[in-house]
Amino acid sequence: MAFRNNSCFLSCGHLNINHCRRANVQFAQDFIRFNYDIVSVNDPYFWESKVTEFPTGIRKYFYDNKPLAGFLVSNPDIKVFPLKILKKLVAIEIELSGEKFLMISVYCPPSEELGENMNEISTLLLRFSQEKIVILGDFNAKSSIWGPINTDKRGNIVHDLIN
């Protein structure tokens, strides 16, 4: 996904690594090769409870112990202001070329209810309602709106948030 206006170009993406070391290593190489500015990561590989395998030039925004969501930022021109760093949800405000964005990375395990994460997101959306907002994540929700499958309860909850 890319955002572009007259003064700003932002290349960003989202990836669920599924706690796979090999995927983490490959993605670390691709991150640099494809020149991403910022990427939301879900279910990263970690060693001794910390996210590993990324070069030191990439800034990492993850919970300290066995994180499930976070951000990687490679562009040194992006100013990052961490707002909330939880195990399953990370919210940062970024600024690039005078443009501000609220960015949220969220992972909702299929074995847990969506309530806690949805409450956190709703609070952030209300607090930063005047900013450009990007939510990237894996809600483990099914909906005919974003795929050729029947909508489940979680899909309805996410759809309500979108509306």
UniProtKB/TrEMBL annotation:
Stretches assigned to the Endonuclease/exonuclease/phosphatase domain: 102-163
GO MF, one example: catalytic activity
Pfam families given in the database record: Exo_endo_phos_2
Protein name: Endonuclease/exonuclease/phosphatase domain-containing protein
